[in-house]
């Protein structure tokens, strides 16, 4: 009952929106994306994004979204953008609030193909929607998403310029990291009972590979569960840890001789990094920030 | 004179294998499983290395791996496998219901809910506190299903319905807690049931409960046998039915609760092992309980070995493997045995 009412409500809103569109907008671009092709008005201004990497992408071409699925954490967005911005939270990335999205009357919605596949139809009813790869995407896929977004918001020239800057920035980082070239590195998310390694097929894995490192964990899966025994077999030169709060699985490992004999431990090459930056944001700006962070950690 | 043994033997009139043959075969399977379980990890170790590591203390990397990581995991696997299987056998005896098992009966779901909420509510929860939380949850889950399913006559259908309903209800609350919480990914992983990364601390936490629980179950196995004959028959044979039931229930909570607390709700062991065992040795619980323990340990050992190969050389939760084996077995059971008679 409630659900059907909600749909009715959403339906009404979308009708209003499309009526308005018909008046204001005459031109549109066909944007190909993961769920098909969507006609996006060329002057789309009010944009709602449902993943963090899309905030990064829009920021890269100078646009601030009006609505963000920010998991209700304003400071996470502030940290990503680098300053406080004005936007409306549309709930969590896992379950964005369709009512709030609809009330913002957006021109364009950018959603994640993995998380939001099932609500694609509902989102389309609210506004033109494109679904792109973000969650568990690779670095290359992320850059592709950036290009698609640029096309959708009619900022292709800006995007091209930004990507050139990006390549220059990566080259500069590579030069700075020349001493570390070929060293093996493992990024892992550490929790209470799990140690999840990011492989060469993960986002940050591919990025670090581009920067000249060798990724210690290899698999077709982006993330793999690793225990102390496997860690000591892999034995990476550099260990980058994104940690949970509270008790951690590695607390117990630290007393084990296997841990003490790890190369990264002996040479003090273990870095605890910001989890939002390294594993959540993804995108052009954030990847540069990851590179900067790694340089800083290694030089300190 | 009226002989108890006679009654049970007439009950088990179907063809069953010789108890000693079954015991020796399962024991050898267990021993091979123990060796394979110790041998397979990020690298495969040979029998010589394993023996060296266990009996000659040196400082080599292999010795450290075996002594601090693989040995405790193997021991815990054996204990949990035995505990879950015996818990299932006891539940089937108490309720005289072939479908009864820690998961159908809401015991695992209750324990999971309690552990999940406890871990998320109190950031620094000691492992032994987790066990107590699991006990309370297991008790709550079991009792709820019992109350709903018993009233007048506890039929197979009633039990299955009440059990599934309570299981789903508890699981959905657990899900809700998980979704609403930041640190939930941890709990999600635990909810599948995994033996990865378990060390001596976990063995220490679970072993007293499991060892005492199994010992009492072995000692009272004859009484459980009589219980499974039915209430009137049991009391006419001079057994204090209510007392035995109560002890059985407490044992189930001890065995299943401590297992869930340490390794998460590993599914289906408690359901399928007692079944296989009864097929092999008949319905006499003085045989069913020890053989169930043996086979439960063996099954979980092999399942955990298989779990290594899902994303080799990395780890996958053993719960995935037991669920796969268990689900297919369960469907086979439903087709083959026409469980839902009443």
Q: Any overview of this molecule?
A:
- The complex is a heterodimer of chains A (300) and B (342).
- By secondary structure, chain A is an alpha/beta fold.
- Helix content of chain A is 46%, strand content 18%.
- Chain A has 14 helices and 13 strands.
- In chain A, the strands form three sheets. In chain A, strands 8, 9, 10, 11, 12 and 13 form a six-stranded mixed β-sheet that branches. In chain A, strands 5-4-3-6-7 form a five-stranded parallel β-sheet. A two-stranded antiparallel sheet of chain A has the order 1-2.
- In chain A, helix 3 links the parallel strand 4 and strand 5 (88-89).
- In chain A, 40% of the residues are buried.
- Chain B is mostly helical and 342 residues long.
- Chain B has a single domain, classed as ABC transporter involved in vitamin B12 uptake, BtuC (Orthogonal Bundle).
- Chain B has helices at residues 4-11, 19-39, 47-55, 61-95, 107-121, 127-150, 156-179, 184-192, 200-219, 221-227, 231-236, 241-263, 269-281, 285-307, 318-337.
- The radius of gyration of chain B is 20 Å and the shape is globular.
- The two termini of chain B are 35 Å apart.
- Classes of the chains: A alpha/beta (300), B mainly alpha (342).
- Chains A and B meet through helix 9 of A and helix 4 and helix 8 of B.
